[in-house]
Design a protein that fits this description.
Low-confidence stretches of chain A: none
Shape of chain B: globular
Largest sheet of chain B: 9 strands, antiparallel
Helix content of chain A: 25-40%
Distance between the termini of chain B: 54 Å
Distance between the termini of chain A: 54 Å
Mean pLDDT of chain A: 89
Order of helices and strands of chain B: HEEEEEEEEEE
CATH architecture of chain B: Beta Barrel
Largest interface: A-B, 49 and 50 residues
Number of helices of chain A: 7
Strand content of chain A: 25-35%
Order of helices and strands of chain A: HHEEEHEHEEEHEEEEHEEEEEHEE
Radius of gyration of chain A: 21 Å
Strand content of chain B: over 45%
Number of domains of chain B: 1
Oligomer: heterodimer
Number of strands of chain B: 10
Largest sheet of chain A: 6 strands, mixed
């Protein structure tokens, strides 16, 4: 009887373990990473009308540097030297001394149009990432350029931007380095009743809804960054002190400071993967350990039991 | 952005907490420690729109039982502290289910079925924390554990091989786990019986 009981318990354990679907189901196709990077230094856009107020926008040099370096880092992570993944990057920037093509001007209408194009470009198995660096205000987390080349800016509300990104197939990530960016994160519902919840949307914000996001001149690196993006780049293994190599991204040659060295120096690389949640955890750890800045600016992340894999050595093409 | 549980769950939490304290009011007749390793399957609900019906993790944990009280010759009640670590799910696609740690009070009722087999049923209220967000997610763990006693009955020290099967109930999804472990318990009065 004892043997029979042990055998039956063994069979029961086996039955429970066998549904480990990951081991038996066909692996999904290798996902491509589609990235839209939007950044403004407000060298042209000077004012923004929000509701009945007219806000003046000071020029900030950090976002464009953040955008260029993030684009180069993501591009480099997609190369054979690192993850050998398919990474497609679109850059929409307003920056002093550069005139973008008409479809790369970061205005409300053009950004919306580009996001709508992603609805057909991104596959169900792919990942889409929207990164925005620039000014943000309450009710206006993305303050964008004028449609007509003027100085009066345009903006998206949190609902508008979430809605546009939600329409894109596959998994979506948004990373916002802007003041009051916590307003784009919605509560995880914890029940099945919440119709507005998008389980394929993952968000990191640089600050809470009622906080500003700090920008500073990083004298020791020789160039400007937002605090949050500076740390985000470090989380990806970016060495700010190294001179960069010129790369062509979205038809533009980008150069500047910073470079990746090797996979072993990526602090968020765990078990061959870089996850969005791991980036967030590194950033919050860095803020609290290095600057105590977390007391003034608190990055937030969308909650829930799931996390998004951005890069994985499982997905190598070759 | 921590969400408080709803009122019925809060009542259950309070009840379980009070119940877990009950054995402390009685004279303890033993103490115990149980550790286990388990297959852990998160079952996504429809709102997660997951590619898989079950996400597989490894779960490691145990329970410290500072108080064990014999109710009869074959029945005992114990209360203690359960602690668990659950790894992130096995990679599949570009979504993984996050690792978490959990700890909380537990109460167990153990019935001795034969001299070598016993069955324990346990309830634990665990405060889970997802390690990528540090978000608190409380849940109720219901477990049934057959135990095979591998040491002589008249010893004060008893070691049993346990086969815990548990269901973790959350407001947004549930999980099942099955594993194998070891339970050691020490009976203060075994020799005088």
């Amino acid at each position: 009887m004892r043997k029979a009981l042990l055998r039956n318990l063994g069979i029961l354990l086996l039955i429970l373990v066998l549904p480990s679907c990951e081991l038996f189901w066909d692996a999904p196709e290798t996902p491509a990473l589609h990235v839209l990077i939007v950044a403004l230094d407000y060298s042209k856009t000077e004012q923004i009308p929000i509701e009945e107020d007219l806000w003046f926008l000071n020029e900030i040099p950090g976002p464009v540097v953040d955008a260029h370096e993030l684009a180069r880092a993501l591009h480099q992570l997609g190369t054979e030297e690192f993850f050998d993944q398919d990474v497609h990057i679109t850059l929409m920037t307003e920056e002093a001394g550069y005139t973008p093509p008409d479809n790369r001007i970061p205005s409300r209408q053009r950004v919306a149009s580009r996001l709508e194009q992603y609805q057909t470009e991104v596959g169900e198995q792919d990942t889409f990432l929207l990164y925005y660096a620039g000014h943000g205000g309450t009710g206006a987390p993305m303050i964008l350029a004028s449609e007509t080349g003027g100085t009066l800016g345009t903006y998206f509300t949190p609902d508008e931007i979430r809605s546009l990104v939600s329409e894109i197939p596959g998994n979506k990530a948004m990373i916002f380095d802007t003041c009051h960016s916590g307003q784009i994160i919605y509560d995880y519902p914890r029940t099945e009743e919440a119709a507005s919840y998008d389980p394929h949307m993952f968000i990191i914000s640089a600050s809470a809804a009622d906080e500003t996001s700090q920008e500073n001149a990083f004298v020791y690196t020789g160039h400007n960054h937002g605090w949050f993006s500076y740390t985000l780049l470090e989380a990806l293994g970016w060495d700010h002190y190294l001179p960069g190599e010129a790369v062509t991204i979205d038809g533009r040659e980008l150069t500047g400071w910073g470079n990746l060295t090797e996979s072993a120096s990526i602090p968020t690389l765990q078990a061959g993967e870089i996850l969005l949640g791991t980036l967030y955890r590194y950033i919050t750890w860095y803020f609290s350990e290095n600057n105590g800045w977390i007391t003034l600016q608190t990055p937030h992340v969308s909650e829930g039991p799931t996390d998004l894999v951005l890069f994985s050595d499982r997905w190598s093409f070759h | 952005m921590t969400v408080l549980p709803k009122k019925p769950l809060r009542t259950l939490i309070a009840l379980l907490f009070c119940t877990s304290l009950a054995p402390f009011l009685l004279p303890a007749e033993g103490i115990g420690v149980q550790v286990d390793a388990a297959w852990y399957g998160s079952v996504p609900s429809s709102m997660h729109e997951d590619d898989l019906p079950v996400r597989t993790h490894l779960s490691l944990g145990g329970t410290l039982e500072p108080i064990i009280v014999d109710i009869s010759d074959h029945l005992s009640i114990s209360s203690g502290l359960s602690i668990r670590y659950t790894t992130r799910s096995i990679p599949y696609g570009s979504v993984v289910w996050s690792p978490f740690i959990a700890a909380g009070p537990s109460i167990a009722l153990t019935l001795e079925v034969t001299p070598v087999w016993s069955v324990s049923t346990a309830l634990a209220l665990l405060g889970g924390i997802y390690l990528h967000t540090w978000e608190l997610a409380p849940y109720l763990r219901c477990a049934i554990t057959p135990e095979y006693v591998s040491t002589p009955q008249d010893a004060r020290h008893t070691v049993a091989v346990s086969f815990p099967i548990a269901a973790d109930l959350r407001t947004d999804y549930f999980a099942l786990s099955a594993g194998i472990g070891v339970r050691w318990y020490y009976d203060f009065y075994q020799e005088s019986k």
